Amino acid sequence: MSDFILALTGGIGGAKLCLGLQRVLAPGALRIIVNTGDDFEHLGLAISPDIDTTVYTLAGLANCELGWGRKDETWTFMEVLQTLGGPAWFRLGDGDLAMHIERTRRRAAGETLTDITADLAHRLGVPSRVIPMSDDPVRTVVGTAAGELAFQEYFVRERCGPAVTALRFQGAQAANISGAAAASLHDASLQAIVIAPSNPYLSIDPALAVPGMRAALRARGAPVIAVSPIIGDSAVKGPTAKIMRELGLAPSPLTVLEHYRGLIDGIVLDERDAGLAKHIHIPARVCDTLMRSLEDRERVARAVLTLALELRC
Amino acid sequence: MSDFILALTGGIGGAKLCLGLQRVLAPGALRIIVNTGDDFEHLGLAISPDIDTTVYTLAGLANCELGWGRKDETWTFMEVLQTLGGPAWFRLGDGDLAMHIERTRRRAAGETLTDITADLAHRLGVPSRVIPMSDDPVRTVVGTAAGELAFQEYFVRERCGPAVTALRFQGAQAANISGAAAASLHDASLQAIVIAPSNPYLSIDPALAVPGMRAALRARGAPVIAVSPIIGDSAVKGPTAKIMRELGLAPSPLTVLEHYRGLIDGIVLDERDAGLAKHIHIPARVCDTLMRSLEDRERVARAVLTLALELRC
User: Fold this and answer.
1) What's the total number of domains in chain B?
2) ipTM, interface predicted TM-score of the complex
3) What are B299-308's pLDDT values in tens digits?
4) What is the CATH number of the domain that holds B230?
5) Full-model pTM
6) Which residues of A touch B (CB under 8 A)?
């Protein structure tokens, strides 16, 4: 096998970096382990939001205006579903629906999420390998003052409104690392591992909660590099900083660094946080980590790969 | 309860007459028992083609160009499903899909097909009551020289190509007449029963195969009137005449009459078959039974209701 980089990612923020990595690496030289803690069953369909965000982004099909779903989407299904009195809080575009229905059909026919994801990504033209962290169900449950919420209830239905008091990953203890993820982590051609700038608590921790994942990430001795999802005291997108405050944590790249202590060998910070470098005792690199354009994504990807190369030398 | 007419129907041909009846009767004075032998599970979804054709037609939502599905439909789901390698032989529009997904969701939640159908039809503005013949699974199986086919495989995938050697209605013997159908058939306000010009073998026989249905149709002594789906030696639409020939039957209104012998009290024939009247020993009425316009549908409906009135006097 040829050399490859492995990324660990969640939703849209992580997918942006993955697209940057895909664009600067040779075709096929990127593998991505994706969070499945956001997965849920809705309307009888197996929905894997982070896998789909990753696949759509890498296929050039992502809806950049919405920040989720497919571009050039139609919404007839949703309009009629509302007329019929069906649950409308989770919006599903007509094209997006094909992904969920086809995945559900194949799972019912006995295929693993890993095999289904690989095939669907391939059919949509994605040159990278997109790998679920596990083929077993892991479900992120959000504790709030008003009780526990399933992740999508918290994230979509309640729009991250309730203060988070705790997080747990139902099923994680009984889950296995997916075969493709384990094989990649133990592959001699693995050059570096990148923890994407996804929410550490909601998007990366579910994978880290699967038994053996932390050890597997270190198994080959390839450098592990995180990109901070926090710039200053804010998240670029999503509820990361809000959740950190609610959990009693200071939103800062230093808190992210502390969270990943013992797991990572290097970190990429935003240039606005260059002043923090003196507090960081592992190799760090600064760059503008805001990813608005394709060039931005490639720039952050190159910063990560440069740090990885330094750590390997 | 106020007086009502009950129709027994299958797909598009029957739905046209039902629309005519709905238009000439007072709102709510039509109830319709619909064939569910065409129902099947596809892509994990509970699909009831004849129920949906009936509901869409009565709601003014039917796609008249296609002859099935909804008007003003979009097809994004189907396009993407084909890209993903999913089964594309049964075409599902984006809006139509909402019907199947919502029905599947409610069935999984424990609702009966009867209750779901009543609610969905009501939400789409249908003033008539649309009632499945049974809440239990009955599946039409088509025997061919190459073996048995599930009904939709025969009808849609194979486009009625294979010669039919036999028909059976799997599950019918164990099925019960739906509670709403049974209650309507035993209701003192039932004025007449109309067997719509649907395919007798594919669309009406499944209902007649449910134990007790024939007796229930006669229970109140209300006149039972059939409208011939055959004009001359042809069917207006669909494979009725073809199937009759394959089963060794002469396509003729007289064969339809013979098929319904002992069940019906009167028949409506097309005016082109007026010459057959001398062979018919039950009350018959002739009219132009081709239903292209709304006026056509109303004309045939009035012919049926006039004959019913004569039979009651």
Assistant:
1) 1
2) 0.90
3) 999 999 999 9
4) 3.40.50.10680
5) 0.91
6) 43-45, 70, 73-74, 76-81, 83-87, 93-99, 101-102, 104-105, 108, 119-120, 123-124
